[in-house]
Amino acid sequence: MTRKLTDWINAPAQLMAKLPEDVIALITRFGVAAIFFSSARTKVDGLLHISDGTYVLFEQEYALPLIPPHAAAVAATVSEHLFSILLVLGLFTRYSALAFLGMTAVIEIFVYPDAWPTHLSWAGLLIYLIGRGGGAYSLDRRLGLI
C-alpha cells in the first residue's frame, strides 16, 4: 500500500485514539445503565410497583432454578433499577457492573442461551467497567474509591 492510502485508512483510528478513556467510561456506564434500566421499567407499573405480568414472566418463561419466581422477580427488578442508577452516578461502578455481569450470566445460562451475541456485547461493556472503573466523571473518583 502506498503511504497516502495507509494514512487515509488509519486517520479515523488515530482520531478515535485521542478520545479520552474517561469519556469512554462515561459513555459505557450510561449505555449499560440504559439497557438494564429500560428492562427494569418494563417490570413495573407506576414508579416501582412490580406488575402482575412480571411475576407471571418469572414463573412461566424464566423459571430459574434454585430461586422462587417471586423472589427472582423482586430481586431482578430492584437490582436493575438500583445498579442502573449507581452506574449513571458512577458510584460503586465496579460492583454494579459485576452485579449486572452476574445477571447477564444467569440470563444467558438459564433463560435465553440463544441470545449469546447480545449478552456477549453486554459482557464486554461490563468487563471494561469492572476492570477500569467509572473514570474521572464518576462519584467513585470524587470519593477516592477505586
UniProtKB/TrEMBL annotation:
Annotated localization: Cell membrane
Q: In which domain of life is the source organism classified?
A: Bacteria
Q: Name one Pfam family in it.
A: DoxX
The membrane topology noted for this protein in its Swiss-Prot or TrEMBL record is: Multi-pass membrane protein
This protein's record includes keyword Cell cycle: no
Query: Which cellular component appears as one GO term in the record?
Result: plasma membrane
Q: What is this protein called?
A: Integral membrane protein, rhomboid family
Family classification = Belongs to the DoxX family.
Which parts pass through the membrane? Answer: 95-113, 119-139
Kindly state which keywords UniProt assigns to this record, in alphabetical order. Answer: Cell membrane, Membrane, Plasmid, Transmembrane, Transmembrane helix
